Amino acid sequence: QVQLVESGGGLVQAGDSLRLSCAASGRTFSTNAMGWFRQAPGKEREFVAAINYNGVNTYYADSVKGRFTISRDNAKNTMYLQMNSLKREDTAVYYCAADKNIFRPAGRVRWEYDYWGQGTQVTVSS
Known about the structure:
By secondary structure, this protein is an all-beta fold. Helices cover 0% and strands 52% of the residues. The chain has strands at 3-7, 10-13, 18-25, 32-39, 46-51, 58-60, 68-73, 78-83, 92-102, 115-116, 120-125. The radius of gyration is 13 Å and the shape is globular.
């Protein structure tokens, strides 16, 4: 059974940093693109960042570019999202996702991902 489990969320103040982790189990994702999405109350789930299978290529939403960094450790079957200079508008539930197709370029849309975690809450107060 494939599982993606996010951790590292919490309540922080504006300007602070957080590091999210996404631990995968049930299969290896070393040949698969992975990504982070987020969903704020009353809004649709939106793309945050994505990374290709070997970590060489990364992609970011304009709203987080320069503040967030996505990375992965395939030996640990884990993906990370380092979030710096957090803003109130970053408040959301953050989800990790993985593509079941091997070696496909990382995508920016939800339907390109087949496996999802349960989400971790990030709340940024001013």
